[in-house]
């Protein structure tokens, strides 16, 4: 049994160099065994990707079963309203969220966010149809859904463009959340009052800014950044 003179790792009899640090093996008492098989593969191979059709079919069957059962109960036991639309819409929304990413291994970010936003929009549309509220859907719900999708797309593009630190990621998340809530109040005020009068959203934005400024300072000052990493184990 041999050990590496540099790092001390145990060496196999077939090793001519340390697999950990690459130091050549020189043991006059034990020559390198070139006939025995290596203890690890010498050729790089790729593991075939696991098929996710089974989980996708299972999720589809479960959601379809819930939607069909609720629809049938709504028809057999009329209660004065199409309450099953809420369940069917939720099942459809969950299907669009879960199944396409399972079937498409490398689903483009823009396509995925578009599908997710469309799922939410369709679900809210079903609620609007049940409540006879196409006016508030087109004037309020749909703009909020589109604005939320735009914010998520911004985060996906910025955070997916390269590896970012935890401080940068938290800063972007806080800033995007503040922008989203600012837009929500804008849409609500314009729908109900016809004019935007910033109120509670400015308080949220002020809190977000007060949180972002220290994060930016810590991110820019190396000594503070290292201290935060050391204390919080970043």
From TrEMBL:
Keywords annotated in UniProt: Membrane, Transmembrane, Transmembrane helix
Domain Zinc-ribbon, residue spans: 3-25
Regions that span the bilayer: 56-77, 83-103, 110-129, 135-159, 166-188, 200-221
Pfam family, one: DUF6320
Comp. bias regions, Basic and acidic residues: 42-51
Chain positions covered by the region annotation Disordered: 32-51
Signal peptide segment: none
Protein name, per record: Zinc ribbon domain-containing protein
Organism of derivation: Candidatus Flavonifractor intestinipullorum
